[in-house]
Write a structure and sequence with these properties.
heterodimer; A: about 140 residues; mainly beta; four-stranded antiparallel β-sheet; B: about 375 residues; alpha/beta; Peroxisomal Thiolase, Chain A, domain 1; two-stranded antiparallel ribbon
């Protein structure tokens, strides 16, 4: 998504648009699978930190849903973020854990081990005033 | 490797000193340690300076105004373990036989950063998603509470003990005794972690003079021996990890015990890295002072009080004594040396012979923590 001609806020993608793929209504994170040792990673990488293999990485699409391992509602944070917001570690069945913001910071809607769905949303406003868009996790 | 002794320690009072230069704080700690050791500047063969946000060439900035230049000066950055890493490198300098006497100093001026959460590296994947240190510990706390039926009161009790100890430490930053209610009613930072459960923003410095045991005997009849000195980095893990088991500390302490030929039961007093309330509980377990899941019980029993079976953080720890990041490792060491010498005043642990310092930290994606440095000391 580029800057709109009306001079609205520009959107930037973090870590980058290659890190996810939309399929039907579901967003999937895209990582790496090491053909040599079988380890999966997010985000994608070139060298396998586990077995040190180079050029052995296949792209892998993570499930669009994962399990919330733990979370916290953050009240104090650097300026670019907008507290209060919730962060959590999400475990995917591919054996990968990803930290991201949750789509709600209502404590009544959050529970350990609950299922969450990957989607895109604003996580910060950067120094240039641009909206930073990344993956977020929505409680189901 | 040669036996290494500590013959002098010193630290300045921790607090907020916005008008004071960081290098002057480090220099004061250096002078305190050198006077405590009774050494002259010409005796020191190398300097090791640790800081996280203290900027370039802090060691040179500290030592130059004492005319202690020309010698190798090593500037160390390892996040919260910067000071303890400087200590560890100093140990290596002596143990290897390269030097006979060195000085390690740790200093930090967090007040210069304007408060709030500790600035983390923006290049980091999780930091860019909104991770802050209180949230990391909060997530550990939430998981621990769920897995082991611990309560927020259990967390608060860490702070109550910490403040009580700090009230007997004139060099501590926060010295007013508190209650479980007051801790839980303080401002929420990252739930379940409230303000009182976080180490404060502060400034400080600590230093130590290290030398070979042979040389130490010329200066003192009571050198403190470094029986174990360990530095490890966290292991990269892209998958699931049990956040209630700090692997870097478990691994590091095992190595430190092995090196010292000692075990958790031999430790009479320890200063551990209680940057947040939950951390102290996790480290009771990781360092082997109790079984996994039993830390709240250990605290409740009073076992970790100054008069308990295994006194932890008699200084008040990071939560109350303060945590000027780079200074912490050497402030912990100073406390343990005082404890082993019987110089800790009203907070003295009775007849402490073996002590431990445990310093770990650094928020970085994929690692439990960036670095962990553990020292086992004996009189």
């Amino acid at each position: 998504m580029a800057e709109s001609d009306k001079g609205e806020k520009k959107q930037v993608f973090y870590p980058g648009e290659e890190c996810w793929i939309a399929e039907k209504d579901n967003l999937h994170l895209v990582g790496s699978h090491c053909k040599k040792c079988g380890q999966n990673y997010f985000p994608a990488r070139e060298i396998c930190p586990k077995c040190f293999a180079e050029g052995e990485m296949d792209k892998i699409k993570l499930s669009s849903r994962g399990k919330l391992y733990s979370y916290s509602i953050v009240q104090i944070a650097p300026k670019r973020f907008m507290p209060p917001y919730a962060v959590g570690y999400v475990d995917f069945s591919e054996g990968v854990r990803v930290l991201g913001q949750l789509t709600t910071c209502d404590p009544a809607k959050l529970k350990l081990d609950m299922e969450v769905q990957t989607e895109l949303g604003r996580i910060a406003i950067d120094e240039q005033g641009d909206e930073v868009i990344s993956y977020k996790f929505k409680p189901l | 490797m040669r036996e290494v002794a500590i013959i002098g320690v010193g630290m300045i009072k921790m607090g907020k000193f916005p008008d004071r230069m960081l290098s002057s704080m480090g220099r004061e700690a250096v002078l305190l340690a050198m006077k405590d050791a009774g050494v002259q500047r010409g005796d020191i063969e190398a300097g090791y300076s640790g800081t996280l946000h203290g900027g370039s060439l802090l060691g040179q900035r500290i030592f130059k105004d004492l005319g202690m230049t020309g010698m190798p000066i090593n500037n160390m950055e390892n996040a919260c373990s910067s000071g303890s890493s400087a200590l560890r490198e100093g140990w290596l300098g002596i143990a290897s036989g390269l030097y006979d006497m060195v000085i390690a100093v740790g200093s930090e001026k967090l007040s210069a950063l304007g408060g709030g959460t500790l600035p983390l590296e923006k290049e980091d994947l999780e930091v860019s998603q909104g991770m802050v240190m209180p949230a990391l510990y909060a997530m550990r706390a939430r998981r621990y509470m769920a897995d082991f039926n611990a309560t927020k009161e259990d967390l608060a009790k860490v702070v109550v003990k910490s403040r009580k100890n700090a009230s007997m430490n004139p060099l501590a930053q926060l010295t007013k005794p508190t209650t479980v209610e007051e801790v839980l009613n303080s401002r929420m930072i990252a739930d379940p972690i409230t303000l009182f459960q976080c180490c404060p923003t502060g400034d400080g410095a600590g230093a130590a003079v290290l030398c070979s045991l042979e040389k130490a005997r010329k200066y003192t009849r009571h050198p403190i021996l470094i029986k174990g000195s360990i530095l490890v980095s966290g292991k990269f893990e892209p998958g699931f990890r049990d956040m209630t088991t700090p692997e870097i500390t478990v691994r590091g302490s095992k190595l430190a015990y092995e090196m010292a030929g000692l075990g958790p039961n031999d430790i009479d007093v320890a200063e551990v890295h209680d940057a947040f309330s939950i951390a102290e509980l996790l480290y009771y377990e990781a360092l082997g002072f109790c079984k996994h899941g039993e830390a709240p019980q250990l605290l409740k029993e009073g076992a970790t009080n100054i008069d308990g079976r295994i006194p932890i953080n008699p200084s008040g720890g990071l939560i109350s004594k303060g945590h000027p990041v780079g200074a912490t490792g050497l402030a912990q060491l100073t406390e343990i040396v005082w404890q082993l010498r019987g110089q800790a005043g009203p907070r003295q642990v009775k007849d402490a012979k073996v002590g431990m310092t445990h310093c770990t930290g650094g928020g970085i994606y994929g690692l439990d923590h960036g670095a962990c440095s553990i020292h086992i000391l004996a009189r």
